[in-house]
């Protein structure tokens, strides 16, 4: 092949230089665009962060600290929405106490010290007694004998009203309460019992329900109750009920102070006596059935557990203290099997049956009254 003329070589060299120049320009333009894009992204991020609401900034910081996002946030939200937000599971050997979630329980007890500031009046004492007795009846008659054991029947409205009153006792919702109590009867005083005395007095009294292990509601144990959407809703937002209940006592006291100053009461006084003091007394009276009524008292029947009959606890809890009777035949609406065993909850249920609010109160079959008797009550 003949050699190219000098003009052709010059032209080829020019084309090559031109292509290289164009390529370098494209690379430079691409680098400049990339730099500008990075600057734009950073400026946009800074602007968005500056305009982000405060609660979003908190979420951003929580994401950087896993303990806050998974433990603190969920525990606080679980106070108000127990179905959506569940606390983290207990770690092995930790005891399972959720110290963040029990802050309201601790605060409830500390608030009782306000009694030294608000003082006392006849109206305050009356508020304490009324608040205690009404809610104790809702717990013993409905949370326990109705929702847990179905020992009588009632209408849907009455069912919800007393579920609402029971929730005001600050003992969670009716579904949670019934599910755990049914588990207690399945394995009373055994290892699987949520509040067996074998786990220690403090655990059987209150530690169990302050734990992450027993926070959730096992709906498989209560298929007859979960069919009611209003009960599911109440169980989910159970804490809102005592908050509203406490506010109602404060409002009543404020009104009485304005219209009848001679009563010498106030909103703060009725809040302390009608809610804080009565609620703490109510909670611990209820919890004694789990703890004391399984170690202190007399046994009439040879049950598979250590349940006891206790006259004094029966007075405090409107009849729940006849606990050995109850474990002998849990399906009875009456726990004081004999006339001398005072059972105020049953008396009220009987009166309600006369006006049609409840019906089909189950009683103890005569043969069961004499079955499995212990010769000498111990």
Characterization of the model:
The protein is globular and about 70 Å long. It has helices at residues 6-51, 54-64, 66-80, 103-111, 115-118, 122-148, 156-167, 174-186, 201-207, 229-236, 240-259, 267-291, 311-316, 323-328, 344-354, 366-370; strands at residues 153-154, 358-359. It has a two-stranded antiparallel sheet. It is 60% helix and 1% strand. It is mostly helical. It has 16 helices and two strands. The protein has a domain at 109-370.
What series of H and E elements makes up the topology?
HHHHHHEHHHHHHHHHEH
Distance between the termini: 125 Å
Shape: globular
Quantity of strands, as a count:
2
Poorly predicted regions: 8-17, 46-65, 90-94
Main-sheet strand order equals 1-2
The biggest beta sheet reads: 2 strands, antiparallel
**Average pLDDT level:** 82
Strand content: under 5%
**Helix share of residues?**
55-70%
Give the helix/strand class. Answer: mainly alpha
Fill in the keyword field for this structure:
378 residues; mainly alpha; two-stranded antiparallel sheet; 16 helices; globular
Brief overview:
This protein has helices spanning 6-51, 54-64, 66-80, 103-111, 115-118, 122-148, 156-167, 174-186, 201-207, 229-236, 240-259, 267-291, 311-316, 323-328, 344-354, 366-370; strands at 153-154, 358-359.
